[in-house]
Amino acid sequence: MIDMSNSLSDQLEACFGERITVSDPDRGMVTIQVPVDEWLEVAQTLRDDPRFAFGQLTDLCGVDFLGYGQEEWETSEATSEGFSRGVEGLGPGRFDWKSRPEAGDAEQRFGVVAHLLSHSQNMRLRMATFAADEGLPIVPSLVEIWNSANWYERETFDLFGIIFEGHPDLRRILTDYGFTGHPFRKDFPLIGNVTVRYDEEKGRVVYEPVEIEPRVLVPRVIREDSRYNSDDIDRAADDAGSLASGTE
What is the per-residue pLDDT across 103-136, written as a single tens digit (0 to 9) for each? Predict the structure, then answer.
């Protein structure tokens, strides 16, 4: 077991030094950021070093940081911009396939996050990295270190288009084989690309251009107002009394 006087963060910094960046624990879990060219070597050490013994990869996913920090809606207070934003449709994803915007050269756009578990040390760790090339995001596969990474990496490839170099069978796992694009990317239209339906006359499944118009649903402002709450309570009490007396 790791000496309780030395935290996991200290052990990681002592082992890897400046090769990784250790973040302060969040909800009891330490996060490390690893350069993509150190991804495999650090993962191997985390599994084999008895100080860590992270023998299980419990989860792996992709992240698209395009537009990170930008909020589509402000609902904490009243605003006069809701109607115009709803009409103009300026929020993320409010476009069709042909008019989708160019992502440009976003710095550190595609990330990969893995969650590790050590049974012997009774601890968890989150490790993350960024693909070097946003145009063709490539990250080394962890399948040779943790077999459970296989389907997780296939899912991440399918949804984000991140290529895992060295993966034994990197193909789509959720979308169909004729699917165009990667639906969890921030520059993928929310309405999709094509619709799929069964054509009775042709006797087969056909693909057609999507007919849904991209639009914005304007949310209401949520206010904690005792006046409205009291009205709801009174109405609920009246309804309960009517049911008890058998009247309407």
Answer: 655 678 999 999 999 999 999 999 999 999 988 9
From CA 198, how far away is CA 241, in angstroms rounded? 52
Inter-helix orientation angle 8-16/39-48, to 10°? 130
What does the pLDDT look like over 50-104, one tens digit per residue? 999 999 999 999 999 987 776 666 656 666 665 565 556 555 556 666 666 666 5
Number of domains in the chain: 1
The type of residue at 218 is: V
**Phi and psi based region of residue 65 (left: phi greater than 0; alpha: psi -120 to 50; beta: remaining):** alpha
Residue 20 belongs to domain spanning? 1-65+105-171
Q: Has residue 122 been placed in a domain?
A: yes
CA 96 to chain centre: 22
Give the predicted TM-score (pTM) of the model: 0.74
At 129, which amino acid appears? T
CB within 8 Å of 121: residues ≥ 6 apart: 1, 2, 51, 52, 53
How many other C-beta atoms can be found within 10 angstroms of the C-beta atom of residue 37? 10
Asked whether residue 88 is assigned to any structural domain, the reply reads no
Residue 118, domain CATH: 3.30.460.80
Q: How far apart are the C-alpha atoms of 223 and 221, rounded to whole Å? A: 6
- Examine residue 133 and state whether it is found in any structural domain, yes or no: yes
